[in-house]
Amino acid sequence: MIIQGVLGILALITIAWSMSENEWKVNLYNVMVRLAIQFILAAVMLKLPVFKEIFQVMSKVAVSLEEATKAGGFFCVWLSWRRFTSL
């Protein structure tokens, strides 16, 4: 799982580097420092209980939206099937 994440980060950095105007002017030190800051922020956010609660609430909201979308999709299919069979 960690290898997949590292490969994903490397792929994104490679894609961004290849799409830049002047690839050889990219300051790798700046990229690595900012990447380290991202990892530190992610670790802090995942370890603090306040952020865990926020992520749990966001997860519940996402699950609720998914269930509502499924119910709405079922209703639309049911409604169109009802119209189709009543012709």
Total helix count? 3
Query: What is the N-to-C order of secondary-structure elements (H for helix, E for strand)?
Result: HHH
Q: Profile the largest sheet.
A: none
Shape: elongated
Category by helix and strand content: mainly alpha
Low-confidence stretches: none
Mean pLDDT: 87
Overall helicity: over 70%
Architecture overview:
- This protein has about 90 residues and is mainly alpha-helical.
- It folds into 2 domains: about 1-45; about 50-85.
- It is about 85% helix and about 0% strand.
- The protein is built from 3 helices and no strands.
- The protein has helices at about 1-20, 30-45, 50-85.
- It is elongated and about 65 Å long.
- The model has no long low-confidence stretch (mean pLDDT about 85).
List the helices and strands and how they pair.
Elements (H helix, E strand, L loop, with lengths): L1 H18 L8 H20 L1 H37 L2
Short description:
86% of the residues lie in helices and 0% in strands. With 87 residues, it is an all-alpha fold. Keywords: Membrane, Transmembrane, Transmembrane helix.
